[in-house]
Amino acid sequence: MTPGPSNPPGLSLGAGVAVVAIDVGGTDTKRAAVGADGTFVPLETLPTPRLGAAEWVVEQAPAWRAEAEALVGRVDALGVVVPGIVDEPAGVAVASHNLGWRDFPLRELLRSRLELPVALGHDVRAAGVAETRLGAAAGERDVAVVVIGTGVAAALVVDGAPLRAGGYAGEIGHLVVADGPACVCGGRGCLEAVASAAAIALRYETRTGRAAAGSRDVLEAMRAGDADAAAVWQDAVEGIATTLRHLSTITGPEVVVLGGGLASAGNELLEPIERALDRRITIQRRPSLRIAALGPRAGLVGAALLARDLDADHGPGAGA
Amino acid sequence: MTPGPSNPPGLSLGAGVAVVAIDVGGTDTKRAAVGADGTFVPLETLPTPRLGAAEWVVEQAPAWRAEAEALVGRVDALGVVVPGIVDEPAGVAVASHNLGWRDFPLRELLRSRLELPVALGHDVRAAGVAETRLGAAAGERDVAVVVIGTGVAAALVVDGAPLRAGGYAGEIGHLVVADGPACVCGGRGCLEAVASAAAIALRYETRTGRAAAGSRDVLEAMRAGDADAAAVWQDAVEGIATTLRHLSTITGPEVVVLGGGLASAGNELLEPIERALDRRITIQRRPSLRIAALGPRAGLVGAALLARDLDADHGPGAGA
């Protein structure tokens, strides 16, 4: 089989139970089946409905399970990850600005519908689990996985343990890092308002009157010598570097992994952030910066790992 | 016995092994003996020598142990806490600006000198342990204990676990919160440069040309209607509130405990911070703010608890 772009060679989760993984995003819902041998098989990505997304997931789940079982055989668990505030121990999707739910008991509804063990996780924290176990920070104990896409958030791992705080940890998109632009949260100068992919496009449009469909357009304008694009990009870089200094001061990561859509810029993002961070670090431990290894699949891989952890939690080798 | 001001009634650590506790500060070294019944007996506070403080602790330890044993009987462990960067699992005092040591293996030197189990901790994280187990945040799982004295640092507890990150977690004194004043770390606008007790006094002196021996003098001038004192105090309040917003965004505490010398101002500190925080919180979980219950003894109580944990770690009820 020739691997497609969404399934590059080499991605295996190792042997374990077969599971279904779902990553409900603000725009799209990604899905995958993972076989007992660890093979990761992406399923078709679907548009997330604007209304009733949580109910839609519950309704579709039996068909998605059947689709996965046709590919990898009987599955033993389902892992689903969602954005916003998520109370993982309770299995509740507490709140999402974009998807509009509130205190939705997603795990219990899926479990009773499918009669299958279900893990509910936070998309970014799950991506953090994936990058820390299989990706760019494998084997590290003090890590921040910073995901910059439509929104911005971080999965924080300290002393080897992911931080939850009832779902409130790692909401770095709402750190104040600039004098400035209004944020959806009601504040001003939040990281998300200067450095999210959407903010970069919007700020370029506002500044120049020229259209930008996304941050990639701004990056391409910058490459072509557009000084406005360079200024908007640099504002994002400075905001991210300020955020990394805050993280270094508070949770002391040794490794910072940059993920999400913006990280596809690679060194054009990484190198200016390295320089901006060097100007800011004083007594903090200077983290090493890396681009995410699992790309846009990190959340989905994390969902599969959470589902597999359910089995491990009940087996003889159960870990904390 | 009539309790003195340093030993108010009611402080008991509960039944356990008898221990010696030492809190090596930048100015003074506090000591206590804790009996098997939990009685906390403060010993005389000694000035910390400017040079060779770590060696001095090792040299004096046998005499301090004898002094404690004369009061509470045979002790089974020693707990010592120090400022700066501390690697607790390794037992090494990594670095202290004020005390001048570097990579000092304090735990091993004390252990071999005394032939006694020794716990080495960080003064602020130990105070956090004490406030979380016996003090203002007893029973809480997501806590920040913010200690504002000569310096500023925080003990962070997330999901019930204290954050270490190799000793780099919680160095909030070096969050940039203001346009402005130079900090000892080499940065500008750090919290410590606007809100530490020393900074409050210095900023008032610089602004007015009038002497202030400490933050208490500034507080008293503010009470007497001095507008400069009020402005300096308000700058500290705003810096602390900005810091609490950063903490809420990154580690999501439900409870923030304010300790250290500045917290002796009680409601004159707490109430303006409550208002300044209300202006800043958007999507973050709004923490409830409390004044520390254990006061300046929190570090010492934490040292005793760490020493007792050594015994628990080897006993049948050993916890994580």
TrEMBL record, chains A, B:
InterPro entries: ATPase_NBD, ROK
Entry-linked Pfam families: ROK
Protein family according to the UniProt entry: Belongs to the ROK (NagC/XylR) family.
Protein name: ROK family protein
